[in-house]
Amino acid sequence: MHISVIGSGYVGLVTAACFAEFGLQVTCMDQDHRRIAALESGEIPFYEPGLHDLVGKGRQAGRLTFTTNLTQAVEQALVIFIAVGTPPRDDGSVDLSAIEAVATGIGREMTSYKVIVTKSTVPVGTGRQVISWIESSLREPVRFDVVSNPEFLREGSAIEDFIRPNRVVLGAERDESVAILKDLYQPLYLIETPIVVTSLETAELIKYASNTFLATKISFINEMSVLCEQVGADVRLVAKAMGLDGRIGSKFLHAGPGYGGSCFPKDVDALVATGKEHRCEMGIAKAAVDANVRQKTRMVEKIRTALGDLNNKRIGVLGLSFKPNTSDIRESPSIAIIRLLLKEGAHIQAYDPEAMRETAQQLPELKLCSDSYEVSVDADAIVLATEWNQFRNLDLERIKTQLRTPIFIDLRNVYQPARMAKMGFQYWSIGRPSLPPA
Ligand code: UDX
């Protein structure tokens, strides 16, 4: 079967490459000529483990092709995935102009039955809007169906999440389109992936409900970490014991500097905005957002307490991306904290294995180091902001000798307080008692 994916960003490219891996004939279309030219020459515009090889494999097998031509992408395909950006507006609502432009374009080009699938995260009601955008742009009467098939891909493990998902959600109006979509996901039957078939509206809400619930879980444990610090408890053990309750589960209970990335902050805000629009107060989602904002400010307070004062202090930061295994710095807590520290007069020197280029564009005043160790040279403190694996086994003796004062602030609870104190560090972490250096 031939399918097309419109949009070659993160979601679009992973979707296209994985469907090609499933044996389908895939055309990936983007209006950005430079991006398509780069993809055609084998260049992937962002870092995602395994994606470079998977795109290469699809191209070599002749199953994955790139184009800037919408007519061609529509003509060849029975199923067309829309995976274009849905950026947030200032009031938290979602800007759907790219979806509208693509839906209208598809409508104009359509001459035979198509299934149009929204893959991008879109607010409830968008599927129906897509139907009317297509209907109003058709040049001739053509049958079509619209399906909502939200993605649940995590950056850093997107390919694994695509080929071994916990579930596939299909929101549709008619059985014919569901049967076609189920065919695309045929390889998942072997691993017995549950397929949840719903209405368009339910599918759209499932995505927001899932992300908001996970964000709330993180905000909950982050708030608990503050209480733990006040009463001398250990949040890691609180989370561990909570997680052993099968009804709670252990995932997404790691206290840290707050959630970031391209999805959680945007999606939780969008759910709050949708609630407002329908006069339905989303109080828990709002509280999760507030707790997340507070968490970042608390991190700066923690660093200030550790250093006494921030003005003119030199601080080494390890990790810039919003989480490990990605070059993405969108809504990264590390970047937010660095901005607040700079405002207070601190000098920052930082290192990240993948996100240096992106950071240099956004924060040119930052001193970027060439490795994990340069970050501690002559610094008054070191802050571990993103838990990349290569920061988990640092040569701590080397870092201690390079620092002006042995202050280590671990915003991801990577190291053990007792061990760090024994090594002579003033060690600060999240929701765990700080021990004085031995
Ligand atoms: C998320 C969803 O997991 C995915 O299903 C959806 O499609 C897109 O949004 P992603 O943004 O890639 O994926 O990152 P994720 O791994 O979920 O982490 C989000 C943020 O939460 C990161 O900033 C991470 O550091 C933080 N986090 C996660 C915690 O602070 N504690 C945790 O226990 C888990």
Short description:
With 438 residues, the chain is α/β, with parallel strands linked by helices. It contains 16 helices and 14 strands. It has helices at 10-21, 33-40, 51-60, 70-76, 97-109, 126-137, 158-163, 175-184, 200-231, 235-243, 264-277, 283-307, 333-343, 356-362, 396-402, 417-422; strands at residues 2-6, 25-29, 64-67, 79-82, 114-118, 144-148, 168-171, 195-198, 314-318, 347-351, 367-368, 381-384, 407-410, 426-428.
Instruction: Give me the Rg, rounded.
Output: 24 Å
Largest sheet: 6 strands, parallel
Element-level helix/strand string:
EHEHHEHEHEHEHEHEHHHHEHEHEEHEHE
Structural category is: alpha/beta
Helices and strands, with pairings:
Elements lengths: L1 E5 L3 H12 L3 E5 L3 H8 L10 H10 L3 E4 L2 H7 L2 E4 L14 H13 L4 E5 L7 H12 L6 E5 L9 H6 L4 E4 L3 H10 L10 E4 L1 H32 L3 H9 L20 H14 L5 H25 L6 E5 L14 H11 L3 E5 L4 H7 L4 E2 L12 E4 L11 H7 L4 E4 L6 H6 L3 E3 L10
Parallel strand pairs: 1-2, 1-4, 2-3, 4-5, 5-6, 7-8, 9-10, 9-12, 10-11, 12-13, 13-14
Please explain how this structure is put together.
- The protein has 438 residues and is α/β, with parallel strands linked by helices.
- It contains 16 helices and 14 strands.
- A six-stranded parallel β-sheet has the order 3-2-1-4-5-6, with helices on both faces.
- The longest helix is centred in the middle third of the chain and has 32 residues, at 200-231.
- The relative contact order is 0.09.
- Bound molecules: uridine-5'-diphosphate-xylopyranose.
- The site of uridine-5'-diphosphate-xylopyranose has 19 residues, from helix 9.
- Residues 151-155, 211, 214, 218, 252-254, 256, 259-261, 263-264, 322-323 line the site of uridine-5'-diphosphate-xylopyranose.
